[in-house]
Amino acid sequence: MSDISYLERQNEAQFGDFVALLKPRVMSLVVFTAFVGLVVAPVPVHPFVAFTAILFIALGGGASGALNMWYDADIDRVMRRTKGRPIPAGRITEGEALGFGLALAGISCVMLALASNLFSGLFLAFTIFFYAVVYTMWLKRSTPQNIVIGGAAGAFPPMIGWAVATGSISLESIAMFAIIFLWTPPHFWSLALFMKEDYSNAGVPMLTVTHGRRVTRLQILIYTLVLAPVAIGTAFTSIGGPVYLAVALALNALFIKGAVGLWRRDEEVALDDRYAREKRFFYFSLLYLFGHFAALLAEAGLKYFELGGW
User: Fold this and answer.
1) How confident is the model at residue 6 (pLDDT cuts 50, 70, 90)?
2) Residue 297 to residue 23: CA distance in whole angstroms
3) Residue 303 clears pLDDT 50, i.e. is over it
4) Does residue 11 surpass a pLDDT of 80?
5) How do residues 74-94 score in pLDDT, each as one tens digit?
6) Which long-range contacts (CB under 8 A, 24 or more apart) does 70-77 make?
7) Are residues 160 and 306 in the same domain?
8) Rounded CA separation 220/65 (Å)
9) 29 & 178 share domain
10) How many domains does the chain have?
11) 25-62 core/surface letters (b: 16 or more CB in 10 A; e: else)
């Protein structure tokens, strides 16, 4: 076998490459928050309908990821964090990714509408459009507020889950949206703090690139302080309760403490020490979001038990 044919065989797309196009880690967040939105809704959903709805919401999230990777292939080739993705690595062509993403988008939206209701299918279609077009194609490369406005796409899944059950939007679904929407800037800006060079090299106007680390850390603190009362206040809606309140109070106290620590940081500290704290804040932000939605799930379980569901 020649060297060329061997390399060609090595670069052929595998099943795992198409899975990677779906951004499975992001998809897991979409699935979990959509599932919580569906479960905490006041209208019961048949288990089969719930399963198929979550499956198609997951496929919709994967379609968004594939379309994002298709359009951002030029950026991904430059950034260390993304250059190993299937398109930059040459295992999948941009055309294949585009076709894959569009096919999944169409299938997921139509099937969700058929499995649950038309409103949820249209809502999923809007979410995919918002992430792929509004965020990826427009905001990401044009404004340092890219992640603020574009973060709405990642905040829609619990609203879609709620819509699957109720066919509508309510204060509770908006509260779940607001938690993720306000959480997104501190989460991604803390990542950008220790990935600043990657974004700079790729020409992405992330806040760390356009305004520097000091302003970014201040913005993280501001959004964290705005997020806390929204997250805690959700305890006093119909989907909240004492368990959620206790979890929210603890997590927000720790989140604020971490944001204050970042804001007060001395720029002259060693880079390794600075990035260690910023990485801790980034990873804790994942626990923060999971904790809030897990607590909402626990409240739904307790209410179900109190009503004699088990």
Assistant:
1) very low
2) 24
3) yes
4) no
5) 998 988 888 889 999 899 999
6) 70/94, 70/97, 70/98, 70/101, 71/132, 71/136, 71/137, 72/136, 72/140, 73/97, 75/202, 75/203, 75/204
7) no
8) 25
9) no
10) 2
11) ebbebbbbbbbbbbbbbeeebeeeebebbbebbbbbbb
